[in-house]
Design a protein that fits this description.
alpha/beta, D-Maltodextrin-Binding Protein, domain 2, 9-stranded mixed beta sheet, 9 strands
Length: about 325
């Protein structure tokens, strides 16, 4: 009799612990977050921080697993995966995203942002918010804008003025605005897969490329390029996205956790990028890279006329609002 009573009490206690709150018995939701940059870079640092915040805010009921280095495909693959619901979360560049939502190429216009506060204000304000909302028609939920940093030109030859780019092959992303900008500067824009870039520079089949200081350093391009021009021609916005199919399956509380965590991690990731950009620039100097400050206005004046060429793709009023 006593044994039966003890067994009953034990079972009752187990039910209270595992079903009484409804939390412990519920299996955690696991979300996959992918990006294409290195595991030691600023994308992954932000992704880990996001996962940490989500776990804390959800009490462990939502787990985010990160997949860096393009192991789940290219940025285009990731966007398509989110549309299909086969990938939960992704950090991508605006350049490939422009192939799905052309007006997102607003962020790709050369020299349109004066500095980071200007870029952040546009991204976090009405214009950036509207663009994220437009993504929902593409079966994607825009959570926030993280960043890659301002993009610079690294090359096998020194750059001091726009004329130094004349006839030089510069690797760019396959994006109409990026290609047009380098055409205007006199270069030969050469799209190629990022994974092929190191070898192409090493074998001198191209003369240079462009990316953020952090990407340049973490991917060790200083080993095959001796020159860095601080042009800051594009601001590398990083839209942080979620599959609408996956998003819509979550409860309102879970959606709020994801959104709030994306904003908190955004602020952390931006500051991390700023801090490490300065640190890596010092490393490049110590490495022996020839780093040149350029007259950005000279480059900007050449590129400014192309804004009008994209009025049919990017709303004119958006471009003018950013410039004002």
């Amino acid at each position: 009799m006593k044994r039966t009573l003890l067994l009953f009490l034990s079972l009752a206690l187990t039910m209270i612990l595992f079903t009484g709150t409804g939390l412990c018995a519920q299996k955690p939701i696991t979300l996959k977050l992918a990006h294409v940059l290195a595991v030691n870079g600023h994308y992954e640092a932000g992704a880990k921080k996001f996962a940490e915040i989500v776990k804390e805010m959800s009490g462990g009921s939502i787990i985010v697993e990160t997949y860096p280095g393009g192991v789940l495909g290219s940025e285009r693959d990731m966007i398509e995966g989110m549309q299909l619901g086969t990938l939960d979360l992704g950090m991508v560049s605006s350049a490939p995203l422009g192939g799905f939502l052309p007006e997102m190429m607003l962020f790709d216009l050369p020299f349109i942002f004066r500095d980071r506060p200007h870029a952040w204000g546009i991204a976090d304000g009405p214009i950036g918010t509207e663009l994220l909302q437009r993504l929902e028609k593409k079966k994607i939920v825009g959570l926030a804008y993280w960043e890659n940093g301002f993009r610079m030109i690294f090359s096998t030859f020194p750059i001091k003025a726009p004329s130094d780019l004349k006839g030089r092959k510069i690797r760019v992303m396959e994006n109409k605005v990026h290609m047009r900008a380098f055409e205007a500067l006199g270069a030969i824009p050469t799209p190629m897969a990022y994974g092929e870039l190191f070898t192409a520079l090493q074998q001198k089949t191209i003369d240079g490329a462009e990316n953020s200081i952090i990407c340049l350093t973490t991917d060790k391009f200083q080993e095959v390029c001796g020159n860095l021009a601080l042009t800051g021609h594009f601001w590398g916005v990083v839209p942080f996205l979620m599959s609408k199919t996956v998003h819509d399956k979550l409860t309102p509380e879970q959606r709020k956790i994801i959104k709030d965590a994306a904003i908190k991690a955004r602020d952390w990731q931006r500051q991390y990028t700023v801090d490490n950009e300065g640190r890596y620039l010092e490393e490049l100097k110590k490495f022996g890279m020839n780093i040149t400050e350029v007259d950005r206005n000279a480059f900007r004046e050449i590129c400014a006329p192309i804004y009008k060429e994209f009025y049919g793709t990017i709303p004119q009023e958006m471009i003018e609002a950013v410039l004002k």
